[in-house]
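A reminder before we start the practical. When you read a complex entry, don't treat the lines as separate problems. The point of joint prediction is that each chain is placed relative to the others, so the output describes one connected object in space. Small molecules and nucleic acid strands, if listed, are placed in the same frame. In the example below there are two entries. Take a minute to note the order of the lines before looking further.
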Amino acid sequence: MNEPKPVALVTGARKGIGRSTVGYLLDRGYQVVGCSRRDADWEADGFSHVRADVADESQVRTLFRTIRQRYGRLDVAINNAAVTSMNHVLLTPAASMAKMMNTNVVGTFLVSREAAKLMRRRRFGRIVNFSSMAVPLRLAGQSAYVASKASVESLSQVMAREVADYGITVNVIGPSPIDTDMTRGLPPGKLEELVGALSIGRMGTFADVANVLDFFLRPESDAVTGQVLYLGGIPNV
Amino acid sequence: MGMQRQELIERLTGLLAEAIEEESSHDARPASPDSPLLGSNAVLTSLRLVTLITDCESILEEEYQIHVTLVSEDAFSRRQSPFRTIEVLADYIVELSGPPGDGAAHSAVSE
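Here is the predicted structure of the whole assembly.
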């Protein structure tokens, strides 16, 4: 009897990097559950979408109940859902900070926690969280976003230690700017400035991300955990 | 499906016995409803206790359709921890699941 297909969860799956990640995982034989705050307006074989706000604990628990009942396992969780906005720190409303911390940090925490509970049964799991090159660049104008993503990195590194005994790895990828709604929302000239600050002076592509996912997800990477990998040649400072 | 308090204690004590066995200490103590789960006399390591609590949540959800969050601000702020012993934990679960019809997490445990 064939081994059941592995199961992956992708948050923020409706568009952008999340949607590309779903396609990447489907191509590699995963059954993929995606979640977003709004319904997905597309379908794919092997893909199902659950409407959920990752910052809402009860919705996240319901999401995982669905995965548990439908598949009974989870092999991979990709925490891609995030929000951002650019503002000088003196003009950043507290509500913006709270929103970014809720979605980017609390959301990553809730999904990672529930994922680890499910993954530990099979003593295998791969959690990949998204940070940003804005963190090592200390990007001016993104204090709230950078603070939230730096928190994601620290959360991931501590969690990596705490779930290692369950055979679960937790790693972080920090992509260089990729053409998505998020980067399209940057003020004129900002994107060129960002790319100019990279050692690899070009926009990122999803293929760059997929290459890192390949590394983090493969079974042989069971000793790779708590790592933050930036794309684009960002110096670790 | 409903669950009696005594049945819950027996189920959780079984879980505790498995956890102690998995630690495979040669001087492992037997599992009982009043075995200390916290403190210097605890029968489990702190990591095993984390696993036990997580397993407990899963069993409640999957076998009894009781959807409760055992680890909460409320649990941590109590003067006495609800994770002291299996018996105390069972009482806490009974409390969380609430009497029938009160709109609590799920009405499935009776005393």
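Discuss with your neighbour: The interface with chain A takes residues 47, 51, 54, 57-58, 61-62, 67, 69 of chain B (CB under 8 Å). What might explain this?
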